[in-house]
Amino acid sequence: MKNTQQITSINEWVAKGAAAPFVVLILFSVLSQDITAIVINTLFVAVLFAFQQRLLLQAKALVIRSQFSFFGKTFCVIYERSIPLTSITELTFSQRQHKNDLAITYKNGNGEIKILSFSCLHQAQQTMELLSASGLKYSVHRPTRNTKGLQADDTKETVTDIFPLGALGKEIKPTHTIARFAMPLPQDKVLTPWVTAGIFALVTIGLTASSGNWVAACVFIALTYLSYWLARAYISNKHYFVAASPCSDIVVKEEHLFLPALLFTDRQARELHKEQVKRIVVKWNYYIVGKPDIENASLGQQNLKHAYVVDVTFYTDQGDTLALTGMSVNAQALLLALTHWHYPVSLERSNKLAMPIMVHVRIGAVIAVIGVILASLIKYF
Length: 381
Prior knowledge:
This is PH domain-containing protein. By secondary structure, the protein is an alpha+beta fold. Helix content is 37%, strand content 30%. It has ten helices and 18 strands.
């Protein structure tokens, strides 16, 4: 089976785009007659343009190869993964307006199920021709469903419409560890972190009023903000630790599901057959990267936003779990395992903020910038 067609990955296009600033620097270096800068920037351009990442069909295997190549001659292979066609169990091609994703599900030498993802710009027809040449069956998914609604069908196809294939993970993991410190605080302990932060705030006000040291005040503001989250993490970690059943892992198998004690109000772990799981509600929302208007965003603008799991709740014959936040577990990998083994997953659009950690990162960045500005003002004025 010989097929010389190669599909160019999105990473290769990014590398070539990254070379553009160095081309501009070369022009400036020529004008300034800086020989050293010309040589260095030329080397950067050569390396970035030489980088290749391709998908090809070769020797009865799908091959993903990263390499440096000049004029068709390969000088260095960085990475190569060859997947025999006989080990591939599923091929899923998600076709969007610009970016396309291919998920290759296969079994490795140990019999473990792995998923390798490959993304490209356009090239949909070329990719499907390459897959057809392999002789394997493949499915094509196009985002035609209305993902703006509140609820979606509990199918694997719907999951791949909402979540990019590469974002779900690269393998079917049976074990998913819960970070206890990221679980939601119980209602009777919500005020404690605020009290801790209030004490730090009073210290900050007193320090600023007595010394007028604004740089130190900015440091204490940062510590005040940090103290809230440290106190919150400490309380959550302590509250959700069950001494009698300390395991904090969700284990997903083909016919059995293990849920740890920390997810239940009676502090008892459950090992359930698939038939005992009535429904698993996964609430999600978009994390906006570029365009704030979610409702009016078209399919062509989907690269500006990413779907993110807000929380997961298990409804079973032996009781319902607490809502598991998307920050406390690798929710995308958990969703991949659940849908792969055909558990009854229901997707619901949520109004809750997705990726809340980014809000706090931005606040921290603003505090840092203010501190630098104040330090500069004090130094020069």
